């Protein structure tokens, strides 16, 4: 939480000695860079596969052609994580505060006071988050399948475990931590009941989701970087920047 004086725009965070600009600057830099990278990959890359490895941007693999034109395969996939992260409760806080400064933070003056209307009008689309969760829940299952299929394929090539297999595994673990800690999933697990403790299954599920939900912001960032890193590694292999000689 931050406090400020009405007289000026100085914001002092009583819980951190770090400069106030550090968090929003990092959000703008890393999130902005990721969005640019993801846009280029989704629109201009034709494949995310290298042998047994498959980039999370391209899972599930869908190759459709209009005549001789291959529709960028990642387009069929990208809408789900885009909708999921754009409407995520944590990312909403991050981009409202960092990109828009609107609101800037809890308990601090707005640069333009009186114009903040919450998530109404254009921002009403954020209410679709639970539907994005359904889509991403299914996509996570595809990613788990890719990890298992990649390991099996790797063995068939006579190799043990490749670095790409490990990256894909770490990525799906991070994405699962992020997805299954979603606030909408927590509500699905424990909401709408008069007596949660009367339903043992839902209580256990709710507790499990809550464990992940407590650090939802961390899972959000870690999973973004694992998606990014996994794609970069597979892309470097596919473009011949890293050696093709061994299934590394
Ligand atoms: Fe962040 Fe649902 S609230 S993914």
Q: What would your notes on this structure say?
A:
It is built from eight helices and six strands; from the N terminus they run E-E-H-E-E-E-E-H-H-H-H-H-H-H. By secondary structure, the chain is mainly α. It has one domain. Strand 1 (3-4) and strand 2 (11-12) form a beta hairpin. The longest helix is centred in the middle third of the chain and has 28 residues, at 129-156. It is globular. FE2/S2 (inorganic) cluster (FES) binds next to helix 3, helix 4 and helix 6.
Q: Report the C-alpha radius of gyration, rounded.
A: 21 Å
Total helical elements: 8
Q: For the largest beta sheet, what order do the strands appear in spatially? A: 1-2
Strand content: under 5%
Question: How many strands, which pairing sense, and closed or not: the largest β-sheet?
Answer: 2 strands, antiparallel
User: What is the element string, with H for helices and E for strands?
Assistant: EEHEEEEHHHHHHH
Report the average pLDDT across residues. Answer: 88
The overall strand count is: 6
**Overall number of structural domains:** 1
Uncertain segments are: 1-8
Shape: globular
> Alpha-carbon distance between the termini?
46 Å
Percent range for helical residues?
55-70%
Structural category:
mainly alpha
Small ligands present: FE2/S2 (inorganic) cluster
């Amino acid at each position: 939480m931050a406090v400020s004086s009405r007289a000026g725009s100085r914001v002092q965070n009583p819980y951190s000695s770090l400069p106030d600009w550090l968090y929003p600057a990092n959000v703008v830099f890393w999130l902005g860079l990721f969005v640019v990278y993801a846009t280029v990959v989704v629109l201009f890359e034709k494949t995310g596969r290298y042998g047994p490895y498959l980039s999370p941007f391209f899972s599930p693999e869908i190759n459709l052609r209009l005549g001789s034109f291959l529709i960028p395969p990642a387009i069929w996939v990208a809408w789900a994580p885009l909708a999921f992260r754009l409407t995520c409760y944590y990312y909403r806080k991050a981009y409202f505060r960092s990109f828009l400064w609107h609101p800037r933070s809890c308990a601090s003056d707005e640069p333009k006071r009186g114009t903040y209307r919450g998530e109404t009008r254009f921002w009403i689309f954020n209410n679709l988050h639970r539907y994005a969760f359904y889509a991403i829940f299914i996509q996570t299952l595809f990613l788990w399948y890719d990890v298992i299929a990649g390991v099996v394929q790797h063995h068939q090539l006579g190799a043990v475990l490749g670095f790409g297999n490990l990256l894909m595994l770490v990525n799906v673990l991070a994405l699962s931590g992020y997805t299954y800690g979603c606030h909408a999933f927590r509500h699905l697990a424990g909401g709408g009941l008069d007596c949660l403790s009367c339903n043992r299954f839902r209580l256990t599920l709710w507790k499990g989701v809550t464990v992940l939900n407590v650090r939802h912001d961390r899972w959000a960032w870690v999973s973004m970087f694992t998606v990014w890193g996994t794609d970069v590694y597979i892309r470097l292999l596919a473009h011949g920047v890293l050696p093709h000689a061994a299934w590394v």
